[in-house]
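Anyone else keep sequences and structure tokens together like this?

Example one:
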Amino acid sequence: MADPNMSEEDRMAAEWAAALSETKEPEVASEVRAAAESVSPAAFTNFAPTGANSASGNDINMILDIPVQLTVELGRTRIPIKHILQLAQGSVVELDAMAGEPMDVLVNGYLIAQGEVVVVNDKFGIRLTDIVTPSERMRRLSRT
């Protein structure tokens, strides 16, 4: 029997404890105890980056072999199709760029640098004169 000096909450807690202890089967309790004793912490493989780039957390080596489209743009123009059909060998198409003006260097359509045309071993090339900063690239991307 419960103590008459106990509060209502204490009596309810004692009744619940008694009811729960009566319903527990000794076999189930011992199985639960045995299972709890056999639990051990899981071992996980360390996935931390390794190598020379581990300090920065960025392994650029993963993307070095991805091909990209590099384009050097001398200039642009818009002409009607009837003028394109009239083009022949020796025709001159006027571009919007001025002579001596820096040429745009694009990677996958995004401006990354500007430069000047050079000839090296009878082949055209471009000498980079200005590299677009990462912040400027982000600003230009946000405008599109």
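And example two:
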Amino acid sequence: MKISIQKREPNKNGHRALRLVYYHGSKTGEDGVREQKRSYKPLNLFLYDKPRNPAERENNKTVLLKVEAIRAKRLLERESSRHSLDDRSKLSASFFDYFDQLTDEKAMGSRSNYSIWISTRHHLRRYHGQEELTFEEIDKDFLDGFRQNLQNIATTKSGQKSPNCSG
């Protein structure tokens, strides 16, 4: 995939909005004409079309450097995911925050399904025993340990071993 920077036509104030253009290849239409498949991401940044003073020229330099850095980061993210390389910033994100968000979304569904999510959150936090859990900390050993905990240690609200926790 190619990613480029597009400068839009200037508006009435002489500002050129910038956006990233993602090229996803092309296809041949029914009429035999090749059509490009693209998507656009506005950046909420602008250049002065005709900079009139040093401050406007400096703004243009700074914005162009920033936009090029954004483009380079998107290319790196794309290549990293394409080659199954780790994105360190995503791995260090909070799994508990993510799980809490999913649990909140389940509140709109069936009550029994929501209660299962609440229970899972409770057992997961109790098993981990720390305030935070990152995606990086979750691996096969962690999941096996959590499963073992559910099967052998975890209990229901009434203190009974859960009947659903058989291996």
